UniProtKB/TrEMBL annotation:
Coiled coil: none annotated. One of its GO terms (biological process) is phosphate ion transmembrane transport. Gene3D superfamilies: Periplasmic binding protein-like II. This is Unannotated protein. CDD domains: PBP2_PstS (cd13565). It comes from freshwater metagenome. InterPro entries: ABC_phos-bd_PstS, PBP_domain, Phosphate-bind_PstS. GO terms for cellular component: ATP-binding cassette (ABC) transporter complex.
Amino acid sequence: MKTHTIRRAVLPGVAALALALSACSASNEGGDAEESTGGVEAGSLSGQYTIGGASSQEAAQVAWTTGFTEVQPDVTMTYEPVGSGGGRENFIAGGYIVAGSDSYLTDDEGELSAATERCGGDAPIQIPNYVSPIAVIFNVDGVDELNLSPETLGAIFAGDITQWDDPAIAETNADADLPDAPINAVHRSDESGTTGNFTNYLSVRTPDTWTAGEVETWPSEFGGEGAQGTSGVVSAVTDGQNAIGYADASQAGDLAVANIGVGDEFVGPTPEAAANILEVSPQAENAGEQQLIFDLDYNTEESGTYPIVLTSYMLACPSYEDQAEADVAKAYLSYILSDEGQDFAASEAGSAPLADSLQEEALAIVETISAG
């Protein structure tokens, strides 16, 4: 049996979730299964494939890899939450047939050209698989609800606001009993698409405070506590005292989440509020026929829109030298984008399903994957 892998990682809670998802999926009939895997015949594929990328996608990918075995039982898919940077790196190197990233490929560091070369000279497929809010998680003594303006949020993570009872925080939290205590701001220590999206928001909305621009690696001059991966940030905030951090909302667990100022209101990180951002955002200027990539409108004042989101993307090649790889990539991405796959991600990971029109566009791109 063929195995495609660079490294292995243990996903927490996979066994328990696998049992639950298998029970939910067992009722699928063959016809529905084929529709969910891009027309590839159900049960026709086999092999072990290790893919990976953004750790924020872990919960959704556990659901998808498990659900996929219901329609292709001889295929074992394993997702490694190595971070967006690691996912792109392994995809470019040929270790992953597909990869997950929380930001689309650019040539700022030559990644787009390198991925094009990996795909035999064709620009890689880049399609959204879901939209998810990046929650500002906090664990502050005596505080259950927190409203933060963009300017205040930027100043906290830039290290300019260091006390919880700072006047800028108190101004938007009149009813909160803010402690006279230092702020423990937690950030990702690894290269991260979540960090990239979070800092992109800060650079657009509060450029006078957040001066580092959009970065996937945290700038050391802003200090704070670093933690590895999404789970590391969540653990650091959970176990820390008077801590605040940022993480994919699907993995925030029981932590409190802040409401962020949008126009005249403060909006929480619900899937519905996050999904609204794509409705007001344009596609990226360099998007080609095989790319559905977006430049998010962080300046929106649209009511009910949560502005700090990541659009999770899947990367693939338009064609593969190996027919089996082409079939598995096509089938797996089609499953992710199917109604069943989108429902799994929403229920198990708290993500916002793609709008019907966007889902159809992405599926049409995946349908073109071939071998040759």
